[in-house]
């Protein structure tokens, strides 16, 4: 019994890593499915992920919730990155979100990592790309 307890102690007091803070550009089906899959993966992943915001340029989606996370307009991205210490932006190539060049310039100035995924990739491959990108910025 004591051996079992002593083997559990390190697990109980081990520090969990800080979650990767991400912003998703878009709320279409692929972004929705990927974000849900990444959140579900938190239960078993060594590196948890936290979604800070979703970005969509349709005014009727502004301030709605996706997976309990607020949808913001593109003009708010750089402020969200700075305010919440966001590590990564995830976008899917070909997404129909219209973000002005001056907003992208401001995003780039924050030095946040931008991960662009392809629509033809499966969710497992997308997971791998997201976590590899995080490992490369952590160094």
TrEMBL record:
UniProt cross-references to InterPro entries, sorted A to Z: SAM-dependent_MTases_sf
Domain of life: Bacteria
UniProt cross-references to SUPFAM superfamilies, sorted A to Z: S-adenosyl-L-methionine-dependent methyltransferases
Protein name (record): TrkA family protein
Species for this entry: Marinomonas foliarum
